[in-house]
Amino acid sequence: MNKGIYVALISIGMAQFLKIPIHFFKTKKWDKGLFFQTGGMPSSHSAGVSSLTTFIALKRGLPTIDFALSLIFGLIVMYDAQGIRRQTGELTLKVNDLGELVDKINTDKNIAFKEQQPKKLKEMLGHQPQEVFGGALLGVCIGFLGHLCTKKKKTIIRR
Q: Membrane spanning segments where (predicted)?
């Protein structure tokens, strides 16, 4: 498999793993389920694309089409992670609050009504800018380490 893919996947996995201790330091509660959830610090989206972009830059060089593609698509992913997806998460907070308000209003009326309770929408979808930055910083570090680990050693022949 392509070494760049390994570097990006390791970076994504590391970002997902780090969400657990970071959450613990903030809340004093362990939540192992965060490994499989979106949102939070650091952004695994940012970590993945920035590690791949860093790896490509170091492996192939800045003037290559590989680097250009990775950089542009990475910037789009990071913008989306903290822009559109964040707004969706904030809208979800409002919808969940509205559902609780409707439940409170309905309890005051004496009407026979059987309603199936939908699942509460996931509120943590996107990222704050600092979470995107944290993921990008983690990704650059892992991309650099990935490049160092996959770098071919030059052998010097002495006579």
A: 6-25, 132-150
Would you say the pTM of this structure is higher than 0.85?
no
Q: How far apart are CA 13 and CA 9, in angstroms?
A: 6
A 10 A CB-CB count for 70 gives 22
Task: Confirm if 29 and 23 have CB atoms less than 8 A apart.
Answer: yes
Joined together, the tokens standing for residue 118 give 């939908």
* Closest of 50, 43, 45 to residue 145, by C-alpha: 50
CA dihedral angle for residue 118, residue 120, residue 121, residue 124, rounded to 10 degrees: -170
Q: What is the spatial distance between Cα 59 and Cα 56, in angstroms, rounded to a whole number?
A: 5
With 90 as the cut, is the pLDDT of residue 82 above it? no
Helix 84-107 / helix 65-82 crossing angle, nearest 10 deg: 20
Q: Cis before residue 42, ω within 30 degrees of 0?
A: yes
DSSP per-residue string spanning 105-139: HHHTS------PPPPPPP---S--HHHHHHHHHHH
User: Can you give the length of the chain in residues?
Assistant: 159
Q: Residue 120 — pLDDT band, cuts 50, 70, 90? A: low
Q: How far apart are CA 140 and CA 113, in angstroms?
A: 55
